[in-house]
Each structure stands twice: as structure tokens, then as C-alpha cells.
Please model this.
Amino acid sequence: MRDAPSDALVVAQVLGGDKEAFGIIIRRYEPGLLRFATRMLGSPDAAADAVAESLVRAYRHLAQCRDLEHLKSWLYRITGNRCRSHLGRRHSGDVPLDDAPSIADPVDTWAVLERSEQVALVERALAGLPEEKREAFVLKHVEGMSYEEMSAVTGARIPTLKMRVHRAREALLAALKELV
Amino acid sequence: MRLVLAFVLVASALAAQSAPPPPPSPHGRLEGRVPAAALPVIDSLVAQAVAESLPTEPLVQKALEGGAKGIPVDRLVNGVRRGLVQLRDARAIVTRATPTRAAVDGDVAAVAAALARGLDPRLVERLMAATPAEPPGPVLHAAADLVAHGFPADSAADLLRTAQQEGLRGTRLLDVAVAASHELQREGGRTPMEALARVRAMLPNVPVAPPPHPRAVTRRAGPGS
Amino acid sequence: MTDIDPRLQEALDGERDPATLPVGLREAYVRLVAATELLREPPAVSVADRVMAEIRSDAATSPTAPAGAARRLTQWFTRPRAVTLRLRPAWTLALAAALAALLLLPGGQAAVPGAEEGIAQFVGHFPGARSVEVVGSFNDWRRGALPLNDEDHDGIWHGAVVLPTGQHEYMFVVDGERWVADPLAGRYVDDGFGAGRQNALLIVRP
Model:
């Protein structure tokens, strides 16, 4: 089975004029970016807008991303900034909380409902975090980034990021005491 | 007649060409125009601007300017870096002054230009917040003009606010600054406050700056070298 | 909010085996890990089609750069900040130039600004100069794009050009080497390169 082309190879193809090759970048990073943006904005629709804007912007400035080893960090950084712009225009306390995505489990209706309630509770707890702590928690625990990668995405120093993640964990645990 | 037909044929042939390609990327515009040693750092600065949703054109222009002027690499890079910092500051001001709408590139660039002209950030924010729906460029340049001519910043802002309330918009605000400057230079001398008071009394009928006569435009810029 | 035990933080950072945590901390560890699993639900939407549609459209800027002389010619015709002519289709240039030759007009037709353009006039007193040109943001700081004229040889160099409305920075370049801020500009801004040099600032009105 052939290995997937590296980011560097795909970017070289795009810069060589193959627009369609950018679809590989989209498919590779869209799920993570959408998940990240959804957790930041609390809305799949707002997240879709932010991620679409970010990917188009990344395409237009692809030649500027010379450090192709960190294309992922660059994409997350653009998306994080887009999310911050969206959040900055909202009034405080006005973070929408859409219904949790339904989880298909036709066999056990009770488990689905319970899980939905759990997702909603976790999402509410996450939305209650200050923006910087929420971002740090999502990048660390949902997107599975190292602190080095998080530093490249946010521009913050690693000790600062550790503090934010630690505080976010404390706040979430306090909010999740209702979870059995 | 044959010549006319020939021109029509040539014109048709040219028109049949494909649409002009889209403008080149920032990197493409800089290559060959700035020292090669500066290019990676400038690319990185532009990438930061992209990542932070800041306009990139002011940075590209600053790099092209530095290359054209033969600025040494380290100072050229610092000039572009300074531009990035100004754009960040500008965006923060725009976000505070107009919290309910997205910070568009044009507004951020206009505020950065005002900051580069030495306008106090608090004054910039105050002017923007007074008319958040208006493009900020004209009022900011008018304020910078007034301050450059020695008018106190707060008084200048008050005059412009009054002019806006009297219905003056856009480049007409630049006429307010021109009128104030002219009053200052009148024979017999006027203090800045006297000059501002006279302009305030004229509002909204400050003289309009005469446009250049179109017949004077007989030259076109030639192609780039 | 209470500080949680550093051992729990270490386990969550992957620096400690969670099996070594006391029971109470291990329960908190499991609770937090379970919560993050819930947050990893894959998104139900995709933006791929939307993004690719925008990229394929003419409005999207190509990230590629054409090379060499072809690029320069393309830029001159299509550069958003180039003066006047790039705002018109290329074929009208050939036609206008040809008609001018045909009708034997001395300097070509006078340029008429469009709706979002205005006329910028440049005048400078440089007696004894062999050449004076304007270099600025409207021509990507490119040399040779906007020479001024001194037909009377009286040292007064002048020119006018149609430019997009808005702010433009520029300088005069005298005799190909001396960069001078337009003394008549009235507005100036530090060029930001640390030597105290200023650019002239022009605001083109519609």
C-alpha cells in the first residue's frame, strides 16, 4: 500500500499549479480543525464558517508557509485566530450550545440519551472556560498536541500553556462532579 | 479602411486571449526584488500575518520598498517586522472600537497607517468609535493632518466630530483639515484655537479642494522594468 | 476552584503512570479522560466542497508565481496597484495605441479616471537633474514606471497619472540614485527602516 504523500509534496504540487491537490490538505486536516473550532465556538455552523475561511486563506498564502514541517501548526494557528475573531464579536455569555451530535446506537436507547446528556454537560463545562484555557485544553486533550506544537499554534510559551491546561482541568473537574 | 479592419482584427485576436491570470502570491512578488537573505524571514512574517488574520499587503509593500531603496537586510527585516507589530496594534484598536463587526483588512491597514503617522492610539480608537460604520481612513488622515499642523489632538478630534455631525463624510473631512491649515496661515496670524473656531463656524461649507484638471493627465505610467 | 493534586496533573501530561495514582485521583483521571473522549466526536459537516469551489473560482488568488519577463508583463497589466492601464483589458491598450498612431495624436489620449480612481499630480523643482521619477506603493516601488517630464528644461518636473483612490506612499528618485521625499507633499510618514527617512504620503480622491 502506497504511503500518503507528505505535506511538503502536496504543497509543492499546489504551488506548481495543481489546485486540486489542495483537496488532500483539506481532507487531512479538516476533521481536526472542525473539531477544534466547534469546541472553541460551541457551534458546528460557526465552526464550519471559521474553518472554511481559514483553509481558503491558507491556500492563498501557501507560499508563505515555508516551514512545511509545521503546516499543521500553521493551519491550527489560522483557525484559532479566526475563532478568536468570531468570539470577540460575541457578547459575553452568549456562546451558543448546539445539541450534541446524535450517536447512532439503535440497540440501546437509554445509553444514547445518557451519553448525549454527558456530552452536553461536558460541552457546557468547556464553554464556561475562559477562551485561552479552553483553547489550551482542546489542543492538548482533544487534538492530542504536544506542548511544543501548542506553542507553535498559539504563540504562547510552554510554561504558560501548561498553566492554562492545568487550570482548565481543575475547572472542568469541578464542573463535571455531576458525572457519575 | 483596411487599416481600421486590421486594427479590429488585432483587437479581436487580443480579446480572444484567456483572461489575465490572478495576481501572483506575496512570495512571487518579493522574489528578485528583496535580498535573498531577507526573503525567508519576510516570508515568515507574512505567514504570521496570515495566521493572525492580518492584512499582508502592507508588509509586502514595505519589503518591496526596502528592496527598491537598497536598505540593508537587517534594517529591511526590522522595517517589515515593525509593520507587523503596527498591524497587530491596529487590529486591537479596530476590535475595541467596533466590537460588533469583523475587523476588515482595509480598516486595519488604515489604522496602522494612522499609527505610523504618529496619531495617538487612544485618539484613533475614539475617532473610530464615534462613527463605527464609516471607513476610518479619511477621518484618521484628517486628524493626522491637523495634528501635523500643530493643532491639539483633542481639539482636532472635536472639530472632526462636529464636521461629521454636520453631515461631512469621507474625503470632505480632509477639506476640514485643509481649511484649518489655511486659517492658521492667514496673514495677521491666528492661534490654533482661533483657526479651529473659524473652521467650525464655516461647517458644513468648508471649501472643497479643487480636483486636478483631467486634460493635464497626458502621460501614462510605462511598464515596469 | 481548587488546585488538583500535582500527581494527577503529571498523569494527565503523560509524565506518570496513572496506575500509580491513589484511588481518588485515579477516579478523577478516568472522569477527565472520559470527558475528553466525548469531545472527540468527529464533526458531522465537511467544508471541503465549499473551500474547493472558492479555490477554483477566479476570485481566489493563485498561490503560484509566474516567472521572469512574462511575470513582469503580466504584473504590469494585472497588478492591482499598478497605474491606470492594468485596470483595462489588455486589448484596449493595443487598440488605443494603434488608434493614436493612426490619428497622429501627439501624446496619446488623456486618461480618464474610473469610479474608484482619481488623478494624482506630481511636481518637483530639481534644476540640473537629468531624470526624475516617482517610485511608490502604487507601482510596487518599481523603478522606471513613472518618469516625470521637464519639456521646458526649466527644472520643473511634472507628471500626472490615474491611481486608485486612497493612500499611497512615494518618493522621487533624482538622476537614478537620489531618493527625495516630495517637498510639496504636505504629508509624510517615517519609512520605518530606522534612518529617519520619510516617505511622502498622497491621498487620491475620486
Residues 65-109 of chain C have pLDDT under 50 and may be disordered. The two ends of chain C are 59 Å apart (CA to CA). Residues 165 and 182 of chain C are 19 Å apart (CA to CA).
